[in-house]
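INFO batch 0412 | record 1 of 1 | parsing
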Amino acid sequence: MLGNFYYQNSTKLFFGEDSLKNLGEELKRFGHTVMLNYGGGSIKHNGIYDQVMDVLHQANKNIVENPGVMSNPTLDKLLDGIRIARDNNVDFILSVGGGSVSDYSKAVAASVYYKGDPWKKFFLDQQNPDPDQKLIPVGIVLTMAGTGSEMNAGSVITDAKNKFKVGHVFDNRLMPVFSILDPKFTFTVPESQMKAGIFDIMSHIMEQYFSGDDDNTSDYIAEGLMQGLIHASRIAVKNPKDYEARSNIMWTATWALNSLIGCAKKQDWEVHMIGHSVGAQTHAPHGFTLAAVSLPYYHLVMKYGLPKFKRFAENVWRVNPKHKTDRQVAEEGLESLKDWMKEIGLPLSIRDLGASEDTLEGIVKGTIILDAGYHKLTQDELVQILKDSLNKRYI
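INFO prediction complete | emitting tokens
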């Protein structure tokens, strides 16, 4: 490992069946008024809401409910949450849901005691709260595996009016103070959301993996995580209630984006930048937008990082390199990636998500081009990636 880095992760994790039993003890450490953030109401149908409310009542908490946090949470919803938290002098935020609710909760926590425009400071200008600003602590009860938001300080918000979606990784003060991960809670999400989450995990790993050319321990960890995810995903799509497979997916999601495998890595998050813009235009599930642009993107940048793509093919997909050029091996690895994506039922074209020639201009305009990874895209290359996805070139 050639790079220097700082690593800290302060989130306390409770993992496994019946891990919700730890919630009551954790709540004792925080104030009286709890803001309960959740999504469209599915937790009321599957029983998770009642379980959480029982614990909150037993802890004698004053509960302020904030339902309706949508997939791709919007700026308007963020501002609404800030107002609710301020009006009720909220002491603690409890997020019950998937990554969108978790991301949203951190954004609210960062913004309540900020006097200015949180959208501009935290998301457009990519700044952190001032050192002396008060922040609201956040705890998470996770119901969907994918984002890794349960053990990181990331948050993604969408300006729906201007169709601009952007993420910000806050400093460690916005890490969840605790997260509760019961794999059985993920049984309740629709199968399509499970699949979107699976590719979100894979993309998180690949975007850290496909950078740098040193002998980096982080890459060996990443390869193991990808192998485990591929194996577990094949089981889960056949039997979504296979506890072992779903627990492995959930745990992989956490380690994919809690910053561990990014240590000493340059990292390449361009797939996420493109996917965010596609999502802002189409409102498609985040993991699906990543899946739909990944193959065109990696085919384009492969030649700039050929040794790592060859390694990916050999170590993750077990491609035999005998009598093949490095490029042939690398291309076979991407072909294996494609075959797996099709096997588990992922969309491979943005057209399947609602994009069209008419939306390309907006997607291009909303895509942030990063100077990271093996190659910085030109505007023309970005357009070509989107056209390749739209026209299903690599399917």
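INFO post-check: DSSP finds 15 helices and eight strands in the chain.
INFO record closed
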